[in-house]
Amino acid sequence: MKPIDLVKLAERDLDLRRSYKYRINVCCSSGCLPFGAEDVLKAFEQAIKEYGVEKDCKVARTGCVGTCSVGPAVVVEPGDYLYQSVTPENAREIVKEHIIKGTPIKSMLYRNESFFKKQRRLILRNAGKIDPYNIEDYIAMGGYSALMKCLTSMTPKAVIDEVMASGLRGRGGAGFLTGQKWTFVARASGNPKYIIANLDEGDPGVFANRTLAEADPHAIIEGMLIAAYAIGAEKGYIYIRAEYPLAITTLKKALDQANSLNLVGENILETSFNFSIDLRLGAGAFVAGEETAILASIEGQRATPRPRPPYPATSGLWGKPTLIQNVETLANIPIIINNGGAWFAGIGTPKCSGTKCFSLTGKINSPGLIEVPMGTTLREVVYEIGNGIPNNRKFKAVLVGGPSGGCLPEEQIDLPIDYESLTKVGAIMGSGGIVVIDDQSCMVDTAKFFTDFCVDESCGKCVPCRVGLTKIKEIFERIMRGEGRMEDMNLLEELGNYIREASLCGLGQTAPNPVLTTLRYFKNEYVEHISQKKCSAGKCFQKNEEG
Amino acid sequence: MLDKFVMQHGHRKDALLEILHYAQEIYGYLDKDILTHISNSLNLPTSHVYGVATFYNFFKLKKPGSHIVTFCLGTACFVKGVEEIITAVENEFNVKRGETRADGKLSVFITRCIGACAMAPNAIVDNVVIGKATPEIVIDKIRSVLGEEKVEAN
Q: In this predicted model, what pLDDT tens digit does every residue of A403-445 receive, in sequence order?
């Protein structure tokens, strides 16, 4: 395909999209499928046929809208009317009232209007609006135009400069400047060069990357292609959790379609640029998301990290220069190329540009997948987007950054979300999980839960992480048996700091965060457990009482 | 079938993970015979293949029960009380987490996050996801797949 053909294809598909008066988008992502989304999709297709409105109305399978707690979710365009918990019977009613008579059914609409108000959807721009199984839908929305711009009018260096100017930082957690990483790999000697798109979203309680892959797989692929052009790579891997079957299917389909349109493969868009992409499945190891562990896993080994340097940028897959990026980082790239780095740098805060996706879960009225500009406060996320805590319970803590994140108390709720602010208070950005905890949860029990998780997932290679975390686990078990001592709190803190400083990789370095932050902000609960053998939340010591 | 797949990968040692995935897909689990066979065909030490297979939680080394219930123990499910459901199921069906009941009919597994956090707590009974689960709903569902009647407590 020539560049001009891509432009023509985009125009044709956009015209086709505009020829429909209405478009019914049925969310068929992992959040909505278990609740009958497929049947709802069929019911809509049947209903528009029966009522004879097929020419006016298009029914489309789409990815996630974000309101995952009220699935199946259906959006009717124009106007973005969002229907919640739709049944096949509802589908017929919606066609009859909304499509034929033109009156939306108010009683079925999603009730939390503030859910979308504070959000800014850049990465999720197409989520819930396009059919992820159909590359033409993506192209109609301007997809692959950024790739075309790079290949036809920009040098690799100009692409890197644009990404540098955007100030984009890696969304995998560490927040390293993306443009700088690209420069390192571009300058590194050694051929071939590789790109790994990291979709090993192992954090329990996080589903932002999965949702992105299910809703807009081509945004990830286009980002990879642009990165490959910029750094001179010819081969890429998408490393994805085996536990994400729908995302795997979606990406496979997307890659097949991109291959058949010559957007992936050899002589892409009839230029001299070649780049092929393969999927690699993870197998349930949290540590495999760490950048040196992911290399070992793709090479067919146990996913154990190794010391750095050498960094993957100079010595990665099979010893060759390798760029490893989280898929969310990559999905930002086409937007930056199309709108310019300076435009992107104007979003968010001066040090943290752009937006970030979060999976908002736990004790919250409107959980789901959200995207907010960097610098948005936790209060806005919890109380405005999430609509507060259910059943009039009291807010206790918010866990930011997954099992190695931090538990932040109410005093910190006005904290703006950016890398530095979160690190300062003992949490991390991580891969973007926000879990709200109310007064029914015990913080000691919660810290123990995360410690158990990290003990399970520690690869066992370095001593601080392997032995240190097990010791922390034993102290928790002692406290839970009612045998805790007051000095245990100091011991936990001391151990936590050692593990943080001496561990080899990011897992160990952040694993003590939940323990350290709960000790810092919820010390009274530890004191209560140890000195009174009591748990105000009623979670611990239950067996003792029964016995 | 497995040999053909290994051949397609040119007996490459770095394709070990793909081959393990494929073997589990066709056999359902990876026992000693399968792992030994893979190590022979890739010319890798059996200890290495065993080491890789045990490192990753996704690979099952024992034959699972004919029915499987998997609980998500991700953060959101934990906060929403999945522990209570797991304990109730363990007591009701007399099987511990991570194990298979003596009659081979039911296995209880734990997974770390299936990513359906907004519907927490989640359980999966024979590939059907149950969102916003309660002990009653999950126990009823397991009973129905097992074809067991409710035993009235004395």
A: 888 999 999 999 999 999 999 999 998 888 999 999 999 999 9
Are A347 and A340 in contact by the 8 Å Cβ rule? The answer is no
- H/E stretch holding A17: helix A3-18
Tokens at A298, concatenated: 């793709």
pTM: 0.94
- Residues of B near A (CB-CB distance < 8 A)? 12-18, 20-21, 51-52, 55-59, 72-80, 111-120, 128-131
Cα A488 to Cα A510, A532, B62, distances in angstroms: 20, 15, 39
Task: Please name the residue that has the structure tokens 């709802």.
Answer: A40
In a domain, B153, yes or no: no
Residue A179 parent element (H or E): helix A178-187
Domain assignment present for residue B62? The answer is: no
Domain count along chain B: 2
Query: A111 pLDDT exceeds 50?
Result: yes
Note which residues in 451-510 of chain A have CB less than 8 A from chain B: 453, 456-457, 459
pLDDT (tens digit per residue) in A342-399: 999 999 999 999 999 999 999 999 999 999 999 999 999 999 999 999 999 999 999 9
Could you give the CA distance from residue A215 to residue A207 in angstroms, rounded to a whole number?
A: 12
Domain assignment of residue B106, given as a range: 67-146
Same domain for B77 and B134, yes or no, is: yes
Domains delineated in chain A: 15-117 (3.40.30.10), 142-345 (3.40.50.11540), 355-438 (3.10.20.600), 443-546 (1.20.1440.230)
What's the pLDDT score for residue B149? 64
